[in-house]
Amino acid sequence: MAPVPPEVVYDVQNIHTALTYAVPDQEALVNIIGRREYQQLIEIARYYKSLYNTDLATELDRRIIGSVGSLLSFACMNRVLAGVLYLHNAGKSKRKYEVLRKNDTAVEVFCERVLVGRTPEEIRELQGAFTAVYHSDLRDHIMSYLHDDVVKAFFTAILQDKEEKPLEDRKAAIEKFHSLLYGHDLAAVLEYVSSLTTAQLCDLVRHYNMCYQDSHTVTTIRKQFGHKHKGEQLDVLLFAVMQASDPARHIALLLENSMYGLGTNEDQLSRLVVLHRGNMMERVKTAYHVDNSRTLADRIRGDTSGLYSNLLCHLINQTI
Q: Belongs to which family (predicted)?
C-alpha cells in the first residue's frame, strides 16, 4: 500500500478533531474541506474511513445540521455516488418548512443528472451505481416520479444504451429537426431528441444554429411551442437543447435561477456547485460573468450568508 501523503494525514486529524467537539467546529471544517481539490477530498475520505472505520460524508451529514452539513458531506463524496444520492433524493428536500425557500422538482433533478453532458458510458455507470447502492433500477425510480407519458417515454429513451458515434447524415438530421420544430408536435420533437446521444445532439444543435441563423434553436422552440405548452414537456426539451447548445452557459443560467427572486433553492445551488466544480466550473464562471456583468462569487455572497456562503465560494474556486 502506498504511503499516505503527510498533508492528507494532517487534514484527516484536524477534521476528526473538529468533529469530536460536542458542537462541531464548522468553521474549521469549511476551511479544510472547502479549500481542497476533488481528488484530495477523495483521498481524505478514504483515509478517514481506514483510520476511524467511519464514512466521512455520513459523519458530516449526521453531526452538522442544514445546508452546511449537506454541502460538506456531498463535497467529500465520489462524484458518481453523489449523483446517485441526488437522484434518489430528487424532490425530497429536508428543509421544506422554510417558507421563503424554493424547492426542487424531481424532473429538475433528473434533467440535471441524466441530461447534463451524459455520454452513453456515463449513463451506464450511473445506472450501475444506482443499482449497487439501492438495489433497484434507476429507470423504475425515475418513472415513479413522472406522470406525463411523453416525458416518461423521453427519459426511457435517454436511459437506453446507445452507441457513441457521429450523426450518420448531418444534413438530413438538420432538415428533419427543422421540420419537426415547425410541425407543432412537441412529442415528436422530444422523441427525436431522446434518440440521440449528447454528442450527436450537441453537433445537431450547433450546426442547426449555423444553418438557420435567423432561427436559433431555443428561440424557435419557445416561439413554436411556448404559447400552448407550459409544462414538463417543454421544460425537458428546452433543458436538453440548451445543455447541448452551450453546457457552461446553461449551468451558469441554472445557478442564477437557483438564486433569482425571493428565496434561494439551496438544494439546487449546492448540487450544481458540487457536481460541476473543477474545470467545468471555470468555464461556468466565465459564462456567468459575461451574461450577468458580475462574478458568480459576488452573486453567491449577495444571496447566501455565513459559513454556507464561504463554503460555496471555496468550492467554486477548486480545480481538478
A: Belongs to the annexin family.
